[in-house]
Amino acid sequence: MAARWQGVIALLLLIIISYVDRVNISVMILNPEFAAHFQLNENRMLQGMLMTCFLLGYGFSALLLTPVIESRWHYRQGLLSSIAIWALVCAISPLLGSLLGMLIARIVLGVAEGPLFSLKTRFINDNFAADEIGKPNALTALGVSLGLAVGFPLVTWLMAHVGWIGSFYALALLNLLLGGGLIWRFLPAPQVTSQRAKPGFSQTFALAWRTPLLGWILLVEIATLSYLWGSSAWLPAWLRDEHHFSLQATGLLAAVPFLLSLGSKFLGGVLLDKMRPEQAPLLFIIGGLLTAGSVLALMLSQQPAMLALFMLAANVFWGLQGAAIPAVVQHHAPREAVGSAYGIINGIGNICAAFIPLLMGVVMKSVGSVSSGFFRSGGIAADHAVRRRRTAAAYASRSSSKRVYTLNKLQDKTASRFEQRLRWPRKDEAQGWADLLPTPMQLEV
């Protein structure tokens, strides 16, 4: 196997490990001993804060730490340093005696994990041609679903056999030995082809912010991450408290939706390699609309079979978009700042999505039902997905065009809100993209 593909496999496995770390709290809060030790009890708001603190640390790190690593180190050095901190945080977590200490530990863990996806994106950009990036992006994106699918039952099994304290120590060893070993052995360092100096932090950060249509891509990322963290943070509690599954069954059932998204994520990568770069936003339109429809159907369903069907469908359609966001960034960001550009998108996206678990916890505390917060998240995801439809269409028209066309020619009433110039190849093609935008009647609905 070529060295670059060995690196992709190593990154896939590292992402799986990192997502086990991220969701372990979602399972541990169901353990009475863990909840009592950190004075969580049945306070859903405090439980949601554990995930929110992690995501805030993660978001600011992806935004601000990635340019430092990209300008001073390479991705191999950055990842090995991050893994060492992951392992240390897991090892000291059981020794913390207060909720404040655990919240700080979650922030530090988020800071350490923040640059992961940005450095992964930089590695793929450096080692694959523009028409080859779909499959490696899709393969590494599988790590999100696999990490969630493996993480829920694995943490459940560890708690049943070694307790919640032993679970933290086991995860620390997993991070250090397996995660660190894979990167050390299989991720090649960048080849030095010239002696040109790297741009400094300020220049790298400024280049990243000049990525074309950064804001459009960011809106899509916020919607995607809001759905991911809203569903994964509270799915185990919803299954156990609302549907009365055992802890072991909860861990297994929580993994099923993310397992089903594996095929759709890889399909998205295959489609990306067959599409022109300017066509990539089609995956946002198709995947976003189908996800929104599934979530809305989930909110309106009462039968258990229909609830399961639409929950699984939402994850499948959500997975279809997994490889599209990094691919679009790789196509348009300056080469020297690809990682930092994705860090801006991933960082701000996670900062915005960080408040979804906390918001759900507040709703649960006030209403007294896990379902109330769970479906509140579904409503937010559906709203974002509908907005994503016009965002992706406008993005595609801008990135693929050769001539200037103004938004006030479109039938969408949002034109007055987004006064900016777009490039357009042909008038008839422009009308084709305009037809994808919602009419005022659809927006009012």
TrEMBL record:
UniProt KW Cell membrane keyword: yes
Transmembrane segments: 46-66, 78-97, 103-119, 139-160, 166-187, 207-229, 249-268, 280-300, 306-329, 341-364
All copies of domain Major facilitator superfamily (MFS) profile, residue ranges: 7-396
GO cellular component, one term: plasma membrane
Location relative to the cell: Cell membrane
GO molecular function list: transmembrane transporter activity
Keywords: Cell membrane, Membrane, Transmembrane, Transmembrane helix
Ranges in a coiled coil: none
Membrane topology note: Multi-pass membrane protein
Family annotation (PROSITE patterns): MFS (PS50850)
UniProt keyword S-adenosyl-L-methionine present: no
The protein's name in its UniProt record: Major facilitator family transporter
Organism, as annotated: Klebsiella pneumoniae
